[in-house]
Write a structure and sequence with these properties.
Blueprint: H1 3-9, H2 16-24, E1 28-30, E2 33-34, E3 46-51, E4 54-60, E5 76-81
Antiparallel strand pairs: 1-2, 1-3, 3-4, 4-5
Subunit structure: Associates with stalled 50S ribosomal subunits. Binds to RqcH, 23S rRNA and the P-site tRNA. Does not require RqcH for association with 50S subunits.
Family: Belongs to the RqcP family.
Keywords: Protein biosynthesis, RNA-binding, rRNA-binding, tRNA-binding
Length: about 90
């Protein structure tokens, strides 16, 4: 499955166009390597997504073409999540 589609189906990113933009900006890694939107994602891959001042690291557990909102969290396991910086310094 394409990376941008997985990000959308898993609800890690709200829209597929936004998922593509995030990938194009180099803010998504698959198994430690910067990935493009068309990168194929497989079960067992580790994804790291940087949203502004927060980073989320997940392991892909399942691939589905569509999913209900309640089931989206079952597609991955959260490995790490950095807390957003609130002091405005970015540190």
């Amino acid at each position: 499955m394409r990376l941008d589609k997985f990000l959308k189906v898993s609800r890690l990113v709200k829209r597929r166009t936004l998922a593509k933009e995030v990938c194009d900006q180099g803010r998504v890694e698959v198994n430690g390597k910067t990935a493009k939107a068309g990168t194929e994602v497989e079960v067992g891959d580790t994804l790291t997504v940087r949203y502004g001042n927060q980073t989320v690291k997940v392991r892909v557990d399942s691939l589905k073409e569509t999913t209900k909102k309640a089931e989206a969290g079952e597609l991955y396991t959260l490995l790490e999540q950095s807390a957003p910086h609130r002091d405005g310094t970015g540190s």
